[in-house]
Amino acid sequence: MTCTGLLTVCLIRPPSPRPPVPVAGPSGHALFQDVFRRADKNDDGKLSFEEFQNYFADGVLSPRELQELFSGIDGHSTE
């Protein structure tokens, strides 16, 4: 699965009615942090839309869809 696909599944998937069963490997939070660190090219601890777009632009989502996804997860409403 591409990074964009994984991120989309994690963020858009409806909540599970039961708590997820733990699986071996990194937790969702650890995985998200790893993806964030890789995408944050200037290591400022912030993910600009440009960094987000460069990291996730693999042709799965259109530029508009990337903007909508970024806006939906941008807790500070910044670019």
TrEMBL record:
**For this UniProt entry, what's an example GO CC term?**
endoplasmic reticulum
* Molecular function GO labels: calcium ion binding
GO BP, sorted A to Z: regulation of amyloid precursor protein biosynthetic process
- UniProt entry keywords in alphabetical sequence: Calcium, Metal-binding
Is Calcium one of the keywords? Answer: yes
- Which Pfam families does the entry link to? EF-hand_5 (PF13202)
Q: Which residues form the EF-hand domain?
A: 27-62
Q: Do you know which PANTHER family this protein is assigned to?
A: EF-HAND DOMAIN-CONTAINING PROTEIN, N-TERMINAL EF-HAND CALCIUM-BINDING PROTEIN 3
Query: What's the protein name?
Result: N-terminal EF-hand calcium-binding protein 3
Record the organism: Pteropus alecto (Black flying fox)
